[in-house]
Backbone:
């Protein structure tokens, strides 16, 4: 009986590529689990020594914020508003009106029985990360602060590009913090007074728009 012929070159190349891809996925998954483990584990020699590497991998997409056994519910409501500006060919600057990014997210959640993570948490978590890394001012003094600034800026710019016509080169955010009303019947008709109204600086962005 004749021995079976060898696989053609294309099949061998495909098989080798598939094996390499599987091995790469397994290695990447293993590295991801290790880095996230050291991120959530108590401070130790390894996590302190490789903290920059761990933080670069984890933030902002793999951040762990587990509060299952220590919940910390929001005590305020935040509205994140944005406006854009465009520099014309003659050097004039045209500033657009404010629009509420938070209202857009809230509307998407309320009208969707299975709202996406993007609508529920992306903007809120981006702002929380920005505040944690910047404190009370808007100066990025660390690499993580600069990364969170870019992250928040890019989210706002992408959403602004969907909502408006025309191009823009700059974007500015304003964050209005309102107290959560006490339960029970309303005692008055006046709207709650903002406890904070933070205006961020103008940020240069890659030209967006149509």
Residues:
């Amino acid at each position: 009986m004749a021995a079976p012929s060898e696989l053609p070159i294309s099949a061998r190349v495909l098989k080798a590529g598939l094996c390499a891809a599987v091995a790469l996925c397994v290695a990447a998954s293993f590295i991801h689990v290790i880095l996230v483990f050291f991120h959530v584990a108590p401070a130790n020699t390894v996590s302190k020594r490789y903290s920059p590497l761990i933080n670069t991998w984890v933030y902002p997409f793999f951040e762990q914020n587990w509060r299952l056994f220590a919940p910390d519910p929001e005590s305020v409501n935040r509205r994140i508003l944005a406006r854009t500006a465009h520099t014309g060919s003659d050097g004039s600057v045209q500033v657009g009106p404010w629009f509420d990014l938070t209202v857009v997210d809230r509307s998407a959640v309320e009208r969707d029985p299975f709202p996406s993570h993007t609508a529920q948490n992306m903007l809120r978590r981006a702002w929380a990360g920005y505040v944690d890394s910047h404190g009370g001012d808007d100066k990025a003094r660390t690499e993580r602060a600069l990364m969170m600034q870019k992250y928040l800026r890019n989210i706002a710019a992408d959403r602004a590009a969907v909502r408006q016509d025309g191009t823009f080169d700059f974007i500015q955010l304003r964050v209005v913090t309102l107290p959560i009303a006490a339960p029970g019947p309303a005692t008055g008709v006046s709207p709650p007074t903002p406890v904070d109204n933070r205006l961020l600086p103008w940020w240069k962005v890659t030209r967006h728009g149509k």
